[in-house]
Amino acid sequence: MGGIWVVGEVDGDGALTKLSCEAATASRLLGEAAMLDVRGVVVAAEPDAAAASMTAFLPVVIAVRAPEALERPAAAVVAARVAALAGAAAEPPAYVVVGATPDGRDLAGALAALLGVGILVGATGLAWADAADGLPAGPRVEMQPFGGRVVTTSAFTGERGIILLRPNMVAAEPLAALGRVEAAATQEIVDPAPVRVVERVVTQSTGPAIEDARVIVAGGRGVGGPDGFSGLADLAGLLGGAVGATRAAVDAGWVDYAIQIGQTGKTVKPAVYLAFGVSGAIQHKVGMQTSEIIVAVNRDPDAPIGEFADLFVVADLAAVVPALASALRARAG
Length: 333
Description:
- The strands form two sheets. Strands 7-6-5-8-4-1-2-3-9 form a nine-stranded mixed sheet, sandwiched between helices. The chain has a five-stranded parallel sheet with strand order 11-10-12-13-14.
- It folds into two domains: 4-183, HUPs (Rossmann fold), CATH 3.40.50.620; 215-332, Rossmann fold, CATH 3.40.50.1220.
- It is 30% helix and 23% strand.
- The chain has nine helices and 14 strands.
- It has 333 residues and is an alpha/beta fold.
């Protein structure tokens, strides 16, 4: 049986993403349980820095230089290169693990077509199991479909497949000693459907990225509009945190999609999650339920978020937000 490959994702600054570190850790632990070789693959215009970062989590990382990544969608470039590497390998990977980002989902789809394998999407946990119930030995992938209403365990019917791992499901754990980077020889890739990037839009943020923030101040429909989110941004700044939002607030045009949390947004795991005017619908809950402490403020005493919040305050957020901001300023001053 082939080993496990982890495809590392590179951000706009050329650095390895946090989710790639988590995917590397989860794959390494899976490989140890299965006694399989695990290695990383980084494909980028300048892959060296990201590949070196990935050696903190994996013993071997393959760096593939692809200059065309600067002007092409990342998924198309990476999929073609990874598929070429797999085809040239003496023993192609049995399993490929990819982070479930927008680019990661595109990459997994392209790889599935190129490698002729299936995908298990939205993994929240990975474990290895021996052959049982007619299924071969292999990964058992925990998922939470239907907006997190149920927890399932799935497996591949064969001995190959692609796994998409959701963010913030595994804590990144470095190796005791750094691994090594191996440079792969570049190959001519035939692209049957070339696509070019014509514009890149960068969202500016003055605070921490929402995926990395230890404190998130989130707002829902109850915030009332863009002015309400200005107050939340002020509060987040005082706490050194980031602003998040529900889909309802994003759909209303009050805030940008980049900060949407939930089933169709981002998955976060802060130390403190402050929810203002958030009802707590299951679609939002699935994106923030792993927060260490959840504090909710809502005028509706029957709001669903009260069922799983650690502290539920029934009050008007128009009074609570400025009072809390004032108290924080007084404490800091």
